[in-house]
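This protein record is not my work; I was only asked to verify it. The record follows directly below this note.
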Amino acid sequence: MRHRSRREPPGQLGFNATPLFDMMFTLTIFFMLVCRLSSAEQVRMELPKPADSQAEIATLPERVIINCRLGRDAHSAKYSIGPNSPQRLDEIGERLLRMKRRSPDIEAVVRADKRLHYWHVRAAMGVVSDSGIRVLNVVAHVGEVE
């Protein structure tokens, strides 16, 4: 009696799972090593806080966002830097001056509610200009083109 082999006929594609297992093994090893290295940085310890440190802050903001929000009505506005609580424009101007001294290449973005009068936005732009910031972007929503 002849045995027929159960081979696939020539021309049919088969699935080779070996590369899949190799990749899964490699990823498992990678994530195990990364987890071990990152856990070494999370050891609780009390770090020193020198009083007269000469170190500089490495990550200074390269961009500041000024929000102009609607006040009680369209004739009043609230101004804030980022998501912070509202401030007067002169306070924002002082903060911008300090930021400009720390990071001379800082840029400003002015975002405004569309219900505000333009003169509120113009006042915020004037504060940015008075602080010496040279790059000012104004955010506007552009609708979809039909």
